[in-house]
Amino acid sequence: MPMGVSPGCPRIPRDGKDAGLTDELTCRGGARCNADHDRDPQSERQEPFHIECLPATSDVTASVAIHERTPGRMSMEEMSLHVGSLSATTASGGQAPRDLRAWIDAVERIGQLTRIREEVSRNEEMGAITYMAHQEINAPTLLFEKIKESPPGYRALWNPIGSSVDRFAVAIGEPPGLGVMELARRCKSKFSLSIPPVIVDGLGQPANENHLRDDKVDIRDFPAARHWARDGGEYIGTCDAIITRDPDGGWLNVGTYRQMVQAKDQVGLYLSPGKDARLHIERCWSRGEACEVVMCWGIDPALFIVACQTFPKTVSELDFAGGLMGRPVELVKGEVTSLVYPARAEIVAEGIIPPDSQKLEGPFGEFTGYYGRPEDLAFLVHVKAVHHRDNPILTHALMADYPANENSTLFSVARSARIWNDLDRLGVPGIRGVYSHPAAAGGWGMTVVSLEQRYAGHAAQALALAAQCPGGAYYAKWIIAVDEDVDPSNMNQVIWAMSTRCNPVEDIDILRNTWSTWLDPTQNPPDERPYGSKALINACMEHRYIKQFSKRTKIRRSVYENVAARWAQLGFTGQPPQLWALED
How far apart are CA 389 and CA 299, in angstroms? Predict the structure, then answer.
C-alpha cells in the first residue's frame, strides 16, 4: 500500500452523508493524496479512514482526520515532508480487551473488582464509599449494581484504574505483575504507534442496542452522581470521552472533560483554557455556527487513558488509541450529527452547543483534592439523541487526594510515557526513564527525568523540554532531573538525589506564565489561574565536575546476583528487590 494511503477512505462531510470518493483529498499537512483506491478487501463493513500525511519523526509516522476536502493547498510534491512507514502492530504484549465489559471480566479474574450489590445512593454515597475503599494502594475497582435513583439494571463503575498498575496493564493488553517503569516503557512503545480507526456498520453494534430521540431523551436515568458534599450538581461525565471536530482542519479531538447534568436533555460542559474542545467551540461560535459534540459515558479504560492525555492539536487521539489497544477503534456514524462514536461504548449522547449557549456549572471536587473554580458559566450541550447498551454501565472517576484519585496511576504511567516519547522525538539522547508521581495532584504536578549526561547543558535541556513539551506542559509545577543511577519512580531515591546533588542557589530555575488551569488552588485571585509557573530542579551531578564527584555506594553486580539467587534460602519471602544501580 502506498505510504499515507488507506483503501476505501471515505470523506465524512458535516451533513453526515457520504460524499463518495474524490480524485484527491487534502492531508493535514496541506498535502494531497489520491483517493482512487479499492475498498478494503477484508470487509465491506469496515472503511478505514484516510491516513494523514505528517512530518516524520523517529517513531510516529501517520495519523488520521475526518474532514472535507480543502482546495488550494500544496501538493505532496511541493511540500518538504517525509512520511515514514505506518506500523499496525503493537510493540509488545497483546491486544487490549475489546470493550469495558471484557475488561471488567479480565480484572475480576485477577481479583481486582468488587461488586457492590447493596442498594446505594447517587447523592454522595457512592463517592464516599469509593474514597474510603481506595485509601489503600491497589484497592479494587468498584461496580455498583443497585442504585436508588436509577432504573433496575443501570450500573456504575468507579475508579476503573485507580492506583492499580495491574488494571492499567490489562487495559492496554499487557500482563499483570509488571513494575511501573516497565509498564511505562511498554506504554511508551504503544503510544509510538498510529493505527487509524475504522467505521463499521452501526446495525447490531452494542452501543446501538437502545436509541432515544428528541423528547424521549432523559439522561437523568443514568447513574450520574454528586461526588462531594459541595459539588454543584450530579456529574454524568468524569470518566468519559468527548468528541469534537476541528472546524478548520477537520480532524477529530477526543478529550476527557467534566459534565454536570443540567436538565433531562442538557449537560454543562466545563473546559479549561487551551483545551482542544474549547478551541473548537470558540472557533465555531466566531462563525455563528453551533458546535457538534458526542459524549461517551461508559468507555473502556484504554480509550479513557488516551482521552486524558495531551497530544499536539493537529493529531487525532483515535489514532493513538488504536496503537495503544493494538487494533483500530471501531466507530459508527452519528444519527443526528456528522460525528462518529465508539461502537462498543456503554452510553453515547449526541448534541450541539449553539452560539452563546452557557449555564452556571460547578463547583466540583477536582484532581487537586480541592474544589475547582466557584460556580460559573460553562458550555451548555443540548442533547438530541442518546444511544446505550442494555443494562448500561456509567464510568466514574473520583477526583481526590492520593491514592483515591482515579487519575493517579493512569497519569503516572501514561503521562510519563507521553513525555518520554516527546523527549525522544525532540532528539534528547540518554533518557533512561520518565515518571510523573501519582501523589502529585493525580500525576499532574511533578515529572522526574532520569538521564545519562552526555554533554554540557544536557540536564538543563531535558528539564526545559520536559516542562514544555505537549505531553508535559499542562499544570506540572516540579520538573526534576536525576542521573541514570536514580530510579525516577522511587521517591526515596529522588529525594536523596535532590539532597546530595542539587545546590539550590545554582540548580533551580523558574519558568513563569506557563500553561495552567482554573483548577489550581495556589493561583489567586482566581482570574489569574490559567497562568502558572514551574520549578526546574537539576538534581544531577554537576556535569563539569562529574569525574571528580564523590562516588556513590553501590552493590557489586556479581554479589547482588548471588544474593538474589539465594534469597529464599536466606530466609526471606517474596522476590528480591530490583535495584536500579549496581557496581559493574
Answer: 12
Strands 113-116 and 141-144: parallel
State pLDDT tens for residues 6-59: 333 333 334 433 333 233 333 333 333 333 333 333 333 333 333 233 233 333
CA 424 from chain centre, in angstroms, equals 19
Residues 83-98 pLDDT 10s: 222 333 334 567 899 9
- Say if residue 87 is exposed, middle or buried (CB neighbours under 10 Å; 0-12, 13-18, 19+): middle
DSSP 8-state assignment for residue 372: -
Start and end residues for every CATH 2.30.110.10 domain found in the chain: 100-396
Pairing assessment for the beta strands 291-297 and 347-353 based on DSSP bridges: antiparallel
Which regions of the chain carry the CATH code 3.40.1670.10?
Answer: 426-545
Residues of the chain by 3-state class (helix, strand, coil), percent to 5: 25, 25, 55
At 449, list the grid cell. 527525568
Say whether the peptide bond before residue 55 is cis (omega within 30 degrees of 0). no
Question: Using CA atoms, how far apart are residues 310 and 306, in angstroms rounded to an integer?
Answer: 8
Beta pairing, strands 252-255 & 62-64? unpaired
For domain 100-396, which architecture applies? Answer: Roll (2.30)
Categorize the per-residue pLDDT at 523 as very low, low, confident or very high, splitting at 50, 70 and 90: confident
Side chain identity at residue 138, one-letter code: N
Q: 426-545: what CATH class?
A: alpha beta
